[in-house]
Amino acid sequence: MKSIHIQGVNKIFSGRGKEVVALKDINLDIASGEFICLLGPSGCGKSTLLNAIAGFSHPTSGCILVDQRPVTEPGPERGMVFQEYALFPWMTIQANIAFGLEIAGRGPAQIRERVDMLLNMLGLQDFRDRFPKDLSGGMRQRVAIARVLALDSPIMLMDEPFGALDALTRRNLQDELLKIWKVFGTTIVFVTHSIEESIYLADRTIVMTYRPGTIKRDVAITLERPRDPSDPEFNRLKRMLGEMVMEEQQRHHNAELLSSTGD
Fold this sequence. Notes:
Oligomer: single chain
Helix content: 25-40%
Radius of gyration: 19 Å
Structural class: alpha/beta
Largest sheet: 6 strands, mixed
Number of strands: 10
Number of helices: 7
Strand content: 15-25%
Order of helices and strands: EEEHEEEHHHEHEHEEH
């Protein structure tokens, strides 16, 4: 298992003579095996922070450490799951899951054993020879998750992975993800726009402010699992987080109005 330490991270994007401060003074410690949700409106820097943890981009200043080692590039200990699935359309389901193992130089018997285990765990065994185009969105996301799990990545980074799914499929995959998290002990950092999803899944919900993205509040979710969205405490947290997010949504709206009027 891996811990993540984010220390004084700032991210500035420059272009067309302008600078945009996407992240400002982010300090966050994530323990090994913790499930963290990043919550906030569009433009608050959730995905920017996730990409920096993944090593896809570099902070302008500050540093990100995984087990005290600076993140300088993508690495196999940090698996990424995107909303768009990012599967190879010309490969079968089992070939998609096996791809990373083949690149890592694992032997055929080891690959077959690992792929078979994940196909069974995620209910994909009857679809192993199908192609991504033949599957529903929920099934494709299962394959994307299996591909990360195949490499035993101790950290899973998830960028709104269920955002495009219908409500029933989304809840089913949330429950499956929690089972996977419990079995593998993975450290998960999960970006979401959904307040309810963050309460249902997370140990802690990190609420971020509209640009520049800072940490507005770090909220511990101590409800026992499985969690019931009709529970009074669940709804108290939902109201509290909702108020914080709406404040940032209003800031976003006001900024757009000022921009459109040229003030």
